[in-house]
Amino acid sequence: MTLSPFHLAFPVDNLIAAREFWGNVMGCPEGRSSDDWCDFDFYGHQIVAHQAPAIVAKAGHGTNPVDGHDVPVPHFGIVLDMDQWQELADRLIAKGVEFDIKPYIRFKGEPGEQATMFFRDPSGNAIEMKAFADRSKLFATE
Fold it and tell me: CATH code for 7-137?
């Protein structure tokens, strides 16, 4: 099955900081942009940072317990190959990104075993990047 690229628009309170984070820290090439928004190529998917400081100021940040960690809700991210995930984890660590949940292997020995990490962009949007040694286990229950 070929997956179609998804599109996600999210609020930021500082477009300059968003460009620095998504472009330079995350390594996402910038696409079409204006004074109020920026497109980024997020591993073949289109994400758009919209200048909306009033929305960012109102956003709440809750958590849910998962595998002994408090997972930020809401959050978004993507499933990478294990090598890509490790490369990104190493880059984020080298750039001094603060993690909500540091890179680790979740659900060890279970069908859903996965590498995961959680961090935030400069506007506080939570991001989860994950990888599976066997991507066919993405939705596995047994």
Answer: 3.10.180.10
